[in-house]
Amino acid sequence: MSVIGILAILVLAAVLIGGPLLVSNIRAIFCREVTSFFTSPLAYVLIFIFLVAINALTFLWPGRELIESEQAALKDFFFYYHPWVLAFYAPLLAMRTLSDEHRQGTIELISTMPVRTIELVFGKFLGSFVLLFASLFFTASVWISVSILGDPDHGPVISGYLGSLFVGGTFIAVAIAVSALTRSQVICVAVSIPICLMLCIIGFDPVQDFFADSGVRFLAFIGELLASISVMPAFVDFSKGLIELRYLFYFVSIIALCLFITTTVLQNKRA
Amino acid sequence: MIEVNNLTKQFGHKIAVDDLSFSVEKGEVLGFLGPNGAGKSTTMRIITGFLPATRGDVKICGIPVADKPEDAKRKIGYLPESAPLYADMTVVGFLRFCASIRGFSGPARKEAVDRVIETCFLQTVVHQSIDTLSKGYRHRTCLAQSLLHDPEVLVLDEPTDGLDPNQKHEVRKLIRELGKEKTIVFSTHILEEVDASCTRAMIIDQGKIVAEGSPESLRTDGDGSLTELFRKLTTSDVVA
Ligand SMILES: Nc1ncnc2c1ncn2[C@@H]1O[C@H](COP(=O)(O)OP(=O)(O)OP(=O)(O)O)[C@@H](O)[C@H]1O
Ligand SMILES: [Mg+2]
């Protein structure tokens, strides 16, 4: 984690040296991104599938049914699935962002306007992030049902949602970085989903247990290293209601890092 | 005004622009001629800051494009060769978006958008979705975008490509009029356009300047015909 953190600080320094970012530019790009998303029918299909997936996993997964559980804690049933579903959903949300600019050639238009690449990337990120926010908002139906059926602790739910937003934001940033490299949305999705899944799996309890129980010091070290890169330990804490500074720092760093990579790729791609 | 000094652009081993130097003053309209693959679009992309140069530099109104890209880009209006547009927007939505990026807001933005809609004759398609536009209208929408901020420098890559004869005429007239107080570079494959709108023309071949001068002097060099000169000076694919 410290490695990612130090890199992120360097990135932020590099961005600030380049002068202030223009909010009006970021806003214009952000608004275009969101409007364009909702003019395509794909948007509604995506959101629908996301909601079906979350609800189905929460209510129907064999043996873990929320309805039958005694204590109505959302973390074991609802949030438990979030990183896995987001690993698929976030890349689908973000796949068009930069691939489309390259495919349509509008990258030539936008990069000859007075916009810094970092503003473009940031506006695109915020656009996808807001779509993620809206999608997660609709899953609140689960929260409401549980509140009616039982008496959940609301604090962990709120921090759990915060965790989902951060995990989703990280995956969006990963997908944007990948979409800078290819003009094909299919390739973008096919590459980003495995990356996002890896970011989950390497910190997943069974995998971590394997490393910890191996008894070999080297493997244990590898396990810790993987856990520090994974979104899982951070997310699990959030879903328990723990908001830790180091995990906030982790998410912000990894997102900043991905967006910085995207900017660098875009700037050097044309050379 | 545009200053290009010893500009070279290499793609791998291929030299697209070879040590090109020229300058265009305010009030001049430079016609950029040359066979396919001569390096016209590449030169324009470097001028507008889309591509970095391998060697050499470009200054727009004294501002080096490589060092202060945002400042230089504010001075330039650019029509890329393929007239790229966001297919999912309407014409007016697209122009509003571009105007916002150009720093307009509120009534000033509306005014700028209305002005270019009129200049480029887009009134009938204002609310049409861009993916349903005909080729000529797409081209005009992209041209409109380049005029939004009333730029000092205009770089137009084949501005009359795909337009009908009436519109070709209008665009040539527009270039001539705008050229009085702006600096314009435009590329074309239609040699008559040189007479119709340019104060100066330049023929490039394989990234090098092979002829330069006023339309009259070029015609004299070509024994009375620009086509003859063009064919004489540039390498044709058939031979190469
Ligand atoms: N991104 C690129 N990668 C590799 N080669 C390129 C790239 N862009 C252009 N070229 C090459 O550079 C040369 C000049 O291309 P350019 O597009 O500038 O020609 P042009 O004069 O605009 O031709 P046309 O009249 O067909 O528009 C061509 O040989 C082209 O293949
Ligand atoms: Mg060209």
Computed structural class of chain A: mainly alpha
The main β sheet of chain A shows up as:
none
Task: Give unreliable regions of chain B as ranges.
Answer: none
Structure class of chain B = alpha/beta
End-to-end distance of chain A: 33 Å
Listing every helix as H and every strand as E from the N terminus to the C terminus, the arrangement of chain A reads HHHHHHHHHHHHHH
End-to-end separation of chain B: 36 Å
Q: Would you give an account of this structure?
A:
Chain A is mainly α and 271 residues long. Helix content of chain A is 78%, strand content 0%. Chain A contains 14 helices and no strands. Chain A has helices at residues 2-17, 23-39, 41-60, 82-94, 96-104, 106-110, 117-138, 140-149, 154-179, 185-201, 205-213, 217-229, 232-240, 245-269. In chain A, helix 9 (154-179) packs parallel to helix 14 (245-269). The model of chain A has no long low-confidence stretch (mean pLDDT 86). Chain B contains nine helices and ten strands. Chain B has helices at 40-47, 69-75, 91-101, 106-119, 135-147, 165-178, 192-197, 215-221, 226-233; strands spanning 2-11, 14-24, 29-33, 55-60, 63-64, 76-79, 153-157, 183-187, 200-205, 208-213. A six-stranded mixed β-sheet of chain B has the order 6-7-8-3-9-10, sandwiched between helices. Chain B has a four-stranded antiparallel β-sheet with strand order 2-1-4-5, covered by helices on one side. The longest helix of chain B is centred in the middle third of the chain and has 14 residues, at 106-119. Chains A and B meet through helix 2 and helix 6 of A and helix 2 and helix 3 of B. The complex binds adenosine-5'-triphosphate and magnesium ion (MG). Magnesium ion binds at residues 40-41, 81, 157 of chain B.
